[in-house]
Input
Amino acid sequence: MNNAIDTLQTLTVDLGDRSYPIYIGSGLLDQPQLLTPHIPGRQVLVVSNETVAPLYLERILKSLAGFQVATVILPDGEQYKTLATVDTIYTALLEHRFDRSCTLVALGGGVVGDITGFAAATYQRGVHFIQIPTTLLAQVDSSVGGKTGVNHPLGKNMIGAFHQPRCVLADTETLSTLDDRQLSAGVAEVIKYGLIRDAEFFGWLEQHIPELLARDPQQLTYAIERSCRNKAEVVVADERESGQRALLNLGHTFGHAIEAAMGYGAWLHGEAVGTGMLMAADLSHRLGWIGDIDLTRIRTITGLARLPVHTPPELDANEFLKWMAVDKKVQAGQLRLVLLTDIGGSIISDNYDAEKLRKTLDTFHREAQAR
Ligand code: NAD
Ligand code: GLY
Output
């Protein structure tokens, strides 16, 4: 047995006849025996982008020897997560006469994964789909659980579909080429699992974030595996987000407002989520739901992960509220927020004092302007 297989971790997202494995380990791109059993037909479209393809596409194509393979290379960036980009994938599928038995493989970060998954969900009313995530954020979050979609100029991730992949192949070696800012953005989503439902993991992260940022392979693999385990449990309990899956959106309502208001791509998604979680914690503290020590721990870990602790100075409370109103958690015009009751405890609620929300937004604005 080689090293890659020795270090292989396999989790299952248990969704009955749509169950699928998450493979986590080093060197998995060169293990066709993990990938090819999940491809039912002969036609495969690999979708990647102009940054990731030069690094890793060759290795995937080698693993797919014997299949009828086509590729689409997308421009890189959140600003291309649009219906227009999805259309270029449909065009390639039609030009190659791909039929309903085809499989789309997403090779890249969350942007490539979300776009490709949406194309797979909608091409001929749904074809097979595989995720090969290459960012930390995608390996711990976006590749698992079947949320796919694109942005609209008026709101983030507003067009989409649930469509589960047939497998997720997370090769931790790909993280060696990721820049430090992207790595920190991924750590934000890792911290999220600790905050919403896994206090013990949060405690572990307080000790080990420096090792994650230093790309210690063992600690990274542990953090990815534990994050995916948390995500898989939530997805199995509430696949289509009628309840607890919304907790995975801690910090996202604030974060999506930052991303959309600043123009997609200016702030990384994980950065916006990191700051957004701090804002959610601040509001939870004002409501008396978490104490001083918990708020300090959350502030400290955000800084330790090298995530921004200040909002963009140009966003005042009114601007925030305008963007926050465009959120999938809005029901009957009422903004619901994921808030903390503890480290490791969270709820979704519209039962909060709106004045306290304004106070949080005003305080962040004032502090950002004072810098
Ligand atoms: P991303 O896909 O933009 O990737 C970040 C950058 O890293 C890009 O420039 C990319 O080209 C580059 N890159 C990717 N892999 C690399 C590698 N191995 N080496 C070097 N560079 C590499 O961003 P992301 O943080 O991966 O994903 C963010 C997106 O994911 C957002 O659109 C967000 O909405 C979405 N998301 C979706 C879900 C979901 O459940 N579907 C969950 C969380 C986030
Ligand atoms: N990232 C949020 C979810 O998958 O539900």
The chain has 14 helices and eleven strands.
